[in-house]
Every structure is written in structure tokens, then in C-alpha cells.
């Protein structure tokens, strides 16, 4: 009986937390995406005016709670000199969201190179990876059908980890919830390999 109640008490008072790092080139829309996630997950959240978001220098964080778990997001700066800081977060993250500016054809190869360097890192082996083709609201942007084959060239580096390419617009909110739900399923499925952090509510 004691075991039953102590188990129930722990279930009610402890919170499982997963950490997800948001990566991608500067201007891809990572911080705008995180604002869209917060707005989608919390009715009371007052979203920052997108035009007031400035380039991230260092780390921008945000937390959302859903279906009994908390997700801590680490939104990092994407400028070339800041990309050297990305790997400091790899060992502690449970998932990666990689954001692409689908409207910027000139930088898609640069984005792919940064992506390859990131997934080559052993610390990210087996970690679920969500690739977001962002800025789908812009005319003439690359759709998933165009983006996917470019990133699929790295299938040998991606290996058996969960990986998905999805279309989103961080500005309009299109695709935000679908992507997040996919990531949450993967985080839970992978929790034996990368267990969540457990803390008190
Ligand atoms: N049209 C459109 N613009 C977007 C979208 N997402 C972001 N932007 C714009 O893209 C620009 C860069 O957005 P940020 O969110 O600051 O980009 P970031 O990836 O965080 O950039 P760094 O912090 O420098 O790495 C801003 O002008 C945003 O308004 C989108 O879905 N559609
Ligand atoms: Mg940013």
C-alpha cells in the first residue's frame, strides 16, 4: 500500500523535463519559431511582436508544459562565430530542431553544411531530429519536396535516429503544433536512451 501511495505521490509531484535545442543559420527564424511555440502551447502567452525580435547572441530559453511533461527549449544564435557554441549543449539535450529559411536559396548549401557538421557529432547520436522548412508563408519558397532531397543526401550521417522534415511558418503558426507533437512522441519513445530530467513540480 505504501509503495502504491508513494508511487502516486511521486507521479503527482514530480515533473519530467526534456531539453530541446533549436539550431540553424542566422535569420532562419529560430527565435520567431520559439515565440510561436510558446503562443501555441499557452493561451495566456502574449507573443512578442516578430518585428522586435533581434539576432540572438548566446542563448534564448523558453519552457512549455504539455501532457504531463515540460520541454525546455534552448534557442541558440546561428551566426557563423556562434555556431562554435552549439556543441556545448549536445550532451544534455534530448532532441534537436533544425530550422531552415526555405526562402533563401542562396544559403541552402551553407545551411546543409552546418547541418552535416551538427549531425556528425557523436554526442547527438540517436537524438530525434526535426528539420523545419520555415517561412512557408512566403511566395516562391522551397517546399518540403524541394528541401527534403537536399537534406536526405546526409541519410548516411542521420542513421537510424528519428528524423522528419516538416513545413512551417513561424510567422503564421502553420505547422507548429504538428511538429511539436511529432517531437514529443519521439522524446518519449527515446526516453530509455536519454531519460528526462526529473524534478519537483
Ligand atoms: N515571412 C516569414 N518571416 C519569418 C518567419 N520566421 C522568421 N521570419 C523572419 O526572419 C527574420 C529572422 O528571424 P529570427 O527568428 O530572428 O531568426 P533566428 O534564426 O533566430 O536568427 P539568429 O538569432 O541570428 O540565429 C526576422 O525578420 C523574422 O521576422 C516566417 O515563418 N515567415
Ligand atoms: Mg534568434
UniProtKB/TrEMBL annotation:
InterPro entries: P-loop_NTPase, Small_GTP-bd, Small_GTPase_ARF, Small_GTPase_ARF/SAR. CDD domains: Arfrp1 (cd04160). PROSITE patterns: ARF (PS51417). Gene3D superfamilies: P-loop containing nucleotide triphosphate hydrolases. Keywords: GTP-binding, Nucleotide-binding. It holds the Pfam family Arf. Trans-Golgi-associated GTPase that regulates protein sorting. Controls the targeting of ARL1 and its effector to the trans-Golgi. Required for the lipidation of chylomicrons in the intestine and required for VLDL lipidation in the liver. Interacts with SYS1. This is ADP-ribosylation factor-related protein 1. The lineage of its organism: Eukaryota, Metazoa, Ecdysozoa, Arthropoda, Hexapoda.
Amino acid at each position: 500500500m505504501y509503495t502504491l501511495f508513494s508511487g502516486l505521490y511521486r507521479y503527482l509531484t514530480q515533473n519530467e523535463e526534456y531539453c530541446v535545442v533549436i539550431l540553424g543559420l542566422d535569420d532562419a527564424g529560430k527565435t520567431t519559431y520559439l515565440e510561436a511555440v510558446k503562443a501555441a502551447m499557452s493561451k495566456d502567452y502574449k507573443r512578442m511582436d516578430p518585428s522586435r525580435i533581434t539576432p540572438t547572441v548566446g542563448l534564448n530559453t523558453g519552457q512549455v508544459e504539455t501532457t504531463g511533461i515540460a520541454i525546455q527549449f534552448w534557442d541558440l544564435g546561428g551566426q557563423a562565430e556562434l555556431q562554435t557554441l552549439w556543441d556545448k549543449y549536445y550532451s544534455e539535450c534530448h532532441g534537436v530542431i533544425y530550422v531552415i529559411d526555405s526562402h533563401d536559396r542562396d544559403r541552402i548549401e551553407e545551411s546543409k553544411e552546418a547541418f552535416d557538421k551538427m549531425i556528425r557529432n557523436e554526442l547527438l547520436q540517436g537524438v530525434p531530429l526535426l528539420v523545419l522548412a520555415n517561412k512557408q508563408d512566403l511566395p516562391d519558397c522551397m517546399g518540403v519536396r524541394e528541401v527534403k532531397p537536399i537534406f536526405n543526401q546526409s541519410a548516411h550521417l542521420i542513421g537510424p535516429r528519428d528524423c522528419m522534415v516538416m513545413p512551417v511558418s513561424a510567422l503564421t503558426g502553420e505547422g507548429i503544433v504538428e511538429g511539436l507533437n511529432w517531437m514529443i512522441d519521439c522524446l518519449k519513445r527515446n526516453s530509455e536512451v536519454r531519460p528526462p530530467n526529473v524534478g519537483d513540480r
